[in-house]
Design a protein that fits this description.
- It comes from Cyanobacterium aponinum (strain PCC 10605).
- Pfam families: Methyltransf_23 (PF13489).
- Keywords: Methyltransferase, Transferase.
- This is Methyltransferase type 11.
- By secondary structure, the protein is of the alpha/beta class.
- The protein has a single domain, classed as 3-Layer(aba) Sandwich (Rossmann fold), CATH 3.40.50.
- About 35% of the residues lie in helices and about 20% in strands.
- The chain contains 13 helices and 11 strands.
- It has a 7-stranded mixed beta sheet, sandwiched between helices.
- The protein starts with 13 loop residues before the first strand and ends with a strand.
- Bound molecules: zinc ion.
Length: about 325
């Protein structure tokens, strides 16, 4: 095995943890190792998988980007016990996660667009390209604010759903952007829960930089590996989703990556607290645990899920945003040069 080198600082990475299999395919016993750069606080799966292995890892039932909204709603229709309701209620009262303020983004970009349009020219519509747009629910929101919307999505099933919103959805990845996408510039590029899936994070950010307007905004939201859920459970944390997630970022490492390409991080926000305490979340924790235990029963002792969930709730209610929320979102301005 070759040495794992950090793609952000190019320093040496060390072994952090491993999982005995893909929990969605427990019968295929295959170990995945995660290496960590302590200087950047960034981790990744090492060795890196091949493209065909990545493709195979998505060949599973009910991957969430494939689901229609009705299927997602049905999943939520589960009767919760009194104890579960109490846990969710407390978490909900302490969930101050901040969702994307679309109108603020729109008015900022509109102002920049006017400033950058020659006096005699007419101001064009704002444009957004989402890389990893899934079934297109984010693009739909931007369309309602009069953006021209464009999407890139590698998954055919998800693309079919997104194509019902706009024709401008194309097959591709962040590393291999479709040619048609690269033939213009966008006011905004969005990657929501897709950077963690990419094989080459440097090529991804370079590609984004090449299609963004000089004043453009890059919005990235990813699972937050600084949060206590990940710190405690590592590969058993539902949003680790190994091997579909190939990269593990903290707010520190995401900022370092963006600054490496001369982006100025304008804001850092956090989202996703309450959902840690839903029974559906605990069901996934149980599913992951039993898949891992089926491969190595001695190493994976069954925890008391209820107690563990209450302890996590009490430890995180009043903790810092970095350790509390499961996702971090950065909005960065594209500085040219
Ligand atoms: Zn590093």
């Amino acid at each position: 095995m070759t040495q794992s080198i950090c793609p952000i600082c190019e320093g040496e990475m060390n072994f952090h943890f491993s999982v005995p299999c893909d929990y969605r395919k427990p019968s295929e016993k295959k170990e995945y190792k995660v290496f960590w750069c302590s200087a950047c606080d960034y981790g990744h799966i090492w060795d890196r998988p091949l493209w065909n292995e990545i493709k195979e890892s998505y060949q599973i039932d009910n991957y969430y980007t494939h689901q229609t909204q009705n299927e997602q709603k049905n999943k939520k229709l589960r009767q919760n016990s009194l104890e579960e309701k109490l846990r969710i209620y407390i978490a909900w009262r302490f969930d101050f996660g901040e969702h994307l303020k679309l109108k603020e983004i729109s008015s900022y970009l509109r102002q920049k667009k006017v400033e950058n349009t020659p006096k005699e020219g007419s101001v064009e519509k704002l444009s957004i390209c989402e890389i990893g747009c899934g079934s297109g629910k984010n693009l739909k929101k931007f369309a309602s604010l009069d953006f021209d919307i464009f999407g890139v999505e590698p998954d055919e099933e998800a693309r079919k759903v997104a194509l019902s919103i706009t024709d401008s959805i194309f097959s591709g990845t962040a590393e291999e952007l479709p040619t048609i996408i690269t033939q213009r510039k966008y006011d905004c590029v969005l990657m929501s829960h897709s950077l963690e899936h990419t094989l080459d994070i440097n090529k991804t950010i370079r590609n984004i930089k090449s299609v963004l307007c000089d004043y453009g905004l890059l919005i990235i939201e990813i699972p937050n590996s600084k949060c206590l859920g990940f710190q405690k459970l590592k590969g058993e944390w539902p949003w680790s989703d190994i091997p579909r997630h190939l990269n593990f970022f903290t707010p520190q490492s995401l900022k370092l990556l963006l600054e490496r390409y001369n982006f100025y991080v304008e804001s850092t926000n956090y989202v996703g607290f309450c959902r840690h305490f839903f029974p559906t979340w605990l069901d996934i924790e149980k599913e992951i645990h039993s898949a891992f235990a089926s491969n190595n029963i001695d190493e994976w002792k069954t925890p008391n899920y209820k107690l563990r969930s209450w302890i996590l709730l009490l430890q995180t209610l009043l903790s810092s945003n970095e350790t509390k929320y499961d996702s971090v979102r950065m909005i960065a301005i594209n500085n040219q040069s």
